[in-house]
From TrEMBL:
Organism (species): Populus euphratica (Euphrates poplar)
Key words of the record: Chaperone
InterPro entries: BAG_chaperone_regulator (IPR039773), BAG_dom_sf (IPR036533), BAG_domain (IPR003103), Ubiquitin-like_domsf (IPR029071)
Signal peptide: none
Disulfide bond found in the keyword field: no
Molecular-function GO term, any one: protein-folding chaperone binding
GO biological process: one example: protein stabilization
Entry's Gene Ontology cellular component terms: cytoplasm
Domain BAG: start-end pairs: 76-151
Name of the featured protein: LOW QUALITY PROTEIN: BAG family molecular chaperone regulator 3-like
Length: 183
């Protein structure tokens, strides 16, 4: 039996993959293709099984990478929900302006600033391969909203404010009114 076959048997029992195991006999590591009987291993010989230190490091690096990806997805999800709310406000402003209602400029400017904060959050995400598409899509949504608001901001002052004026009736004093009543 070679060292690789021993590792296969142990994989099911201890849960370590073959590449993560090291078999040591007489202070020397035995490779997967080495036959143990040719190395002097006999019945009741003592073998040492170790977890390969480089596999621990690889798993740790993979775990950290997955954690970064999960964090990035969470940030993108939060940004997406916030942008959904802001998109509704963009549509409301657009509808108002298209219907001829003048919108206060501060409202448009504040909305642009809120969108830019979301863009900054997206820029701070390190784009791993599988996260970059989501990041790109959200960035495009934010960009579209800001561009739409910029156009609306330009067309907003062109709307004439609606002025409601009432024509007041005036009454002439009647001839029966005495002079002292005018004071």
């Amino acid at each position: 039996m070679d060292a690789g076959e021993v590792k296969k048997v142990l994989t099911g029992k201890i849960g370590l993959q073959i590449g993560d195991q090291k078999i040591i006999y007489k202070e020397k590591e035995k490779g997967n293709g080495e036959y143990l009987d040719k190395c002097g291993v006999k019945d009741r010989s003592k073998l040492i099984l170790m977890e390969d230190p480089s596999s621990i490091e690889r798993r740790y690096i993979e775990m950290r990478k997955n954690a970064r990806i999960q964090t990035a997805y969470q940030v993108i999800s939060n940004v997406s929900m916030e942008v959904d709310k802001l998109v509704e406000q963009v549509f409301a402003i657009e509808k108002s302006i298209l219907n001829g209602v003048k919108v206060p400029e501060i409202q448009i400017t504040t909305l642009i600033e809120m969108l830019m904060r979301q863009a900054i959050k997206l820029d701070n995400i390190s784009a791993e391969e599988n996260v970059s598409t989501q990041k790109y899509l959200q960035s495009k949504r934010v960009q579209w909203c800001v561009e739409t608001l910029d156009v609306l901001k330009i067309s907003n002052p062109l709307i004439k404010p609606v002025v409601v004026a009432a024509k007041w009736e005036t009454f002439d004093p009647s001839p029966t009114t005495s002079r002292w009543e005018f004071f």
